[in-house]
Amino acid sequence: MLWESPHPHLDIPELLTTWQWVFETPEYSPGLYTSRSNLGSYINAATKERLDFADVKEKATHLSTALIKQYGLQPGDTVSMFSTNTIWYPVAMWATVRAGGRVNGASPAYNADEMAYALKTASTKFLFTLPSSLDVALAAADVAGLARGSVFLLEGQRDGFTSIHDLIRVGSELVADPSWQIPSHLTNKNVCGYLNFSSGTTGLPKAVMLSHHNLIAQCHQLKQLQLVSPGQRYKILAVMPLFHITGVVRFCHYPVFMNGDCIMLPSFSMDSMLKTIVEHEIEELILVPPIVIRLVRDPIVDKYLPELQRIVKRWSSGSAPTAPEIIQQLHKKFPNTGFRQGYGATESTACISCHPPTHFDYRYAATAGMLCANTIAKVIDMDDPTKELGPGQTGEICAKGPQIAMGYLNNPTSTAETFKDGFLHTGDVGHIDEEGLLHIEDRIKEMIKVKGQQVPPAELEDLLLGHELVEDCAVLGVPDMYAGERPKAYVVLRAEVQPTEEVGLLLLRFVKAKKVPYKRIDEVEFTAG
């Protein structure tokens, strides 16, 4: 059985690059349909530095001109970003796509070996980083064979290195060529503009090839379901890193498409995040489960609680499922808000599904929402992949749509395993109900087999996370001669709780009271956070 999106079909531009889409096309480009005083912007939450989208267009044009004419950047070349969140990150990103290059984001937490692997895998020609990451970047560049003269600074100064501001000044004195265009024999579906790393369903990180069409389509899909209060500008807080697919879509591209403000946190703390939400009156937050957990448990939230309750209208979570018990606590703390989740992966340019406005109610929060526009899904039997399952039947989720990636760079084997007949095989176990709501249960490779029956670790983790003594946990399968495997919990207790046998027995009884016998945890091991 195939499920189709319930939302109206969208016409997605097929001949535009992402640059042309939001900077050169009157229908979509804020700089062409509104006044300068009404333009949205990227804002540094800490320093208040602001670049409106006219600034971004001008500076990115100068930067791309310098990279092309002084450094030889060619269409198809990869420019990597190794940086925490900064408003200059999207300037370098837009400069790259304007020139027809490929943008690659790398985690600022990478060590030199990990970064060298990323540079080699992405075939990086130029690297932008920060002074604080420069030593790691240079060590990685040496291993990858990238010349030090091709390493630039997004912010700050360091003797002997060129900054983005130096490059912009150089470019401002040169004559800019027109922006790169999609070749006449291709569409934007065939041109890779972005390389984002993902482990996929198995193996080492792979460079996911995202087309210009993928990014444009995802933004159109999200806008179709977007609510903005009358008289308000769209605002988003960039809490998650920009190299992450959510950062690429939601914090770099979507704000320009929406002519909104993206407020970026250079570094994360609960206090700075909460203060920024209140200061900028941000109505909808896109967070990850660990931050949601802190929202309901961290005492610092009480300092801002009345203002947060007044301002925030919706909480949104992605990257991983949020435990139902945590969602219930969030609802209790913020009773007048809504909740939505997005489900997807780097290979789907973020969202395959999300909650439409009709389903922002907390009673739908444990689901992954409905398929985005222009998206088709199927659920296949895990023992017989040729068998498509029906409503309520559990199997592997597969999806097809304009947001599904092109494949993995220089990795035909993994591409063939993951992308079959146009469908992304997600590696996620779940089902779709009669209403068309997705329910994600776990990852195929993480399922625990107890006497031949499948036990999703996430189901037990969600249960334990709801216990007042538990700060964090993981459930794994351990070998058992009789059952094949048994679930074992590794638990981080709240700071004030001592790890004792009595506490362990209490948690075992807690799970036993709520789960059928084959899903019960046989052992608890306490571990440091």
TrEMBL record:
Q: Where is the AMP-dependent synthetase/ligase domain positioned along the sequence?
A: 47-409
What is a GO molecular function of this protein? CoA-ligase activity
Instruction: Show the InterPro entries listed in the entry.
Output: AMP-bd_C, AMP-bd_C_sf, AMP-binding_CS, AMP-dep_synth/lig_dom, ANL_N_sf
Question: What Pfam families does the record tag this protein with?
Answer: AMP-binding (PF00501), AMP-binding_C (PF13193)
Q: Give residue ranges for domain AMP-binding enzyme C-terminal.
A: 459-527
- Write down the Gene3D superfamilies for this protein, in alphabetical order: 3.30.300.30, N-terminal domain of ligase-like
Question: What domain of life?
Answer: Eukaryota
> What protein am I looking at?
AMP-dependent synthetase/ligase domain-containing protein
> Which species is the source of this protein?
Friedmanniomyces endolithicus
